[in-house]
Amino acid sequence: MFGDLYGYIDMAEKVFAILGTLIYLIFALVVVKQVGTMSKNVKDKFNGILILFSYIHLAMAVFLVFLAWTIL
Length: 72
Description:
Layout (H helix, E strand, L loop, with lengths): L1 H40 L5 H25 L1
Helix pairs in contact: 1-2
């Protein structure tokens, strides 16, 4: 009886984890877009570093989605 319940809870956990990481990936894409827009409008010596960090953040978000998809 409880075996089926644990299976459903496990499946729901996996679905929520994957959906959460996909939402985080969308957030990382928005961050890259916003940093690109900011660097076009505000000239500063740290723009290159900010763009680099935003792309590293995006790459880590893609990696997180990959991990959630394969491990769960």
